């Protein structure tokens, strides 16, 4: 027997309960993993609260990420004792996820624990940090270099934003971070942000399609008006990595930044990201994310804390990253 945080639905309301499970209840899959750590992402907040239409069938086990040890495997790439990490592939949404001491999954979704990272560190990174790395890689692929000027990170005190800021600073970029929380300024400076922008500067619609050219690149976790404003403020030829929608999924903009300034809007998806790119991103994380900064942005929780944390993250009240000690 092992413990899982089981979500049930009744009268359209989703509730969570720690439940004793046995392996026979786990879904089909070719690898059984003993989960050591999971984490909390914005999407986990949606699932924990039954929002976003992400979960179709209940009972359900959330947790879009986990790190652990293979217990049994019929998959050619994994054997008992291997340390593994899972992010994405709709685990925790369409499939049962990591808020459970054991998980059975399709081995194709697993990657080996990246060299140099512990399972706890891998979950401190989690989908949020992994996607931040994908965003940085996309900006680099489109020509960004540190000499070009400041890179804007929106939603900077959140999970994606904190990891993006720490990576960019380590790579030698000047980082501007926008935040709505005044009490995070010292924290953001510690992450490597040198210019702090108040969120309100970006969440009012612009009166003009083009503003002063300001940013050499942008990692955007917020979407909505913030993304529209960032597009209007990009330098000639610069790129925005669109990662999130914490501030809204509508994009009300004009094509002018694309046509007159050659601005690029780069979509970033972590869920179906091909394995070769995943492995590259994890390798980059191991080398380009300072582990002491990762530790400073990370707090620790247990399974029983998740229902409250799920509400906190949707309210924008979680700072940095949260690891969930499952073992
Ligand atoms: P967090 O809640 O940790 O971070 C989001 C941050 O956005 C908050 O901390 C806050 O930053 C800011 N924010 C929240 N609400 C608003 C608002 N109304 N207006 C402006 N800013 C706001 O979430 P994550 O970092 O885990 O995820 C960020 C976003 O990225 C989410 O939308 C998530 O769904 C998306 N995402 C997408 C992925 C992909 O594959 N494309 C993968 C991972 C995440 P501050 O307090 O500094 O203002």
UniProtKB/TrEMBL annotation:
CDD domains linked to this entry: MDR_yhdh
GO molecular function: acryloyl-CoA reductase (NADPH) activity
Top-level taxon: Bacteria
Annotated Gene3D superfamilies: Medium-chain alcohol dehydrogenases, catalytic domain, NAD(P)-binding Rossmann-like Domain
A Pfam cross-reference name: ADH_N
Alphabetical list of InterPro entries matching this protein: Acrylyl-CoA_reductase_AcuI, ADH-like_C, ADH-like_N, ER, GroES-like_sf, NAD(P)-bd_dom_sf, Zn-ADH-like_protein
Entry-linked SMART domains: PKS_ER
Domain named Enoyl reductase (ER): residues: 13-324
Cross-referenced PANTHER family: ACRYLYL-COA REDUCTASE ACUI-RELATED, SHORT-CHAIN DEHYDROGENASE/REDUCTASE
Protein name: Alcohol dehydrogenase
Organism name: Terasakiella brassicae
Source species taxonomy: Bacteria, Pseudomonadati, Pseudomonadota, Alphaproteobacteria, Rhodospirillales
């Amino acid at each position: 027997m092992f413990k899982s945080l089981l979500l049930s639905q009744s009268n359209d309301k989703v509730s969570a309960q720690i439940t004793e499970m046995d392996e026979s209840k786990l879904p089909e899959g070719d690898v059984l993993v003993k989960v050591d750590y999971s984490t909390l992402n914005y999407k986990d907040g949606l699932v924990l609260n039954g929002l976003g239409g992400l979960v179709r069938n209940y009972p359900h086990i959330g947790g879009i990420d986990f790190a652990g040890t293979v217990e049994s495997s019929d998959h050619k790439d994994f054997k008992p004792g291997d340390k593994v990490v899972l992010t994405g592939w709709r685990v925790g949404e369409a499939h049962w996820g990591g808020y459970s001491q054991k998980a059975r999954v399709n081995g194709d979704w697993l990657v080996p624990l990246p060299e140099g990272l512990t399972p706890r560190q891998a979950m401190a990174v989690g989908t949020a940090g992994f996607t931040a790395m994908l965003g940085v890689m996309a900006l680099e692929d489109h020509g960004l270099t540190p000499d070009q000027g400041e890179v804007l990170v929106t939603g900077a005190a959140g999970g994606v934003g904190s990891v993006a800021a720490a990576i960019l600073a380590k790579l030698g970029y000047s980082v501007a971070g926008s935040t709505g929380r005044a009490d995070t300024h010292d924290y953001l400076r510690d992450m490597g942000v040198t210019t702090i922008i108040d969120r309100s500067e970006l969440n009012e619609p612009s009166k003009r399609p083009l503003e002063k050219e300001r940013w050499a690149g942008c990692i955007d976790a917020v979407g909505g008006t913030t993304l529209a404003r960032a597009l209007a403020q990009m330098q000639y030829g610069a790129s925005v990595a669109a990662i999130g929608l914490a501030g809204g999924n509508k994009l009300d903009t004009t094509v002018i930044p694309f046509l007159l300034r050659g601005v690029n809007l780069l979509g970033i998806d972590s869920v179906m990201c091909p394995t070769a790119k995943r492995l590259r991103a994890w390798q980059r994380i191991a080398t380009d994310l300072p582990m002491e900064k990762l530790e400073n942005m990370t707090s620790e929780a247990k399974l029983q804390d998740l229902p409250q944390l799920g509400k906190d993250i949707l309210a924008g009240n979680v700072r940095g990253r949260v690891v969930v000690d499952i073992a």
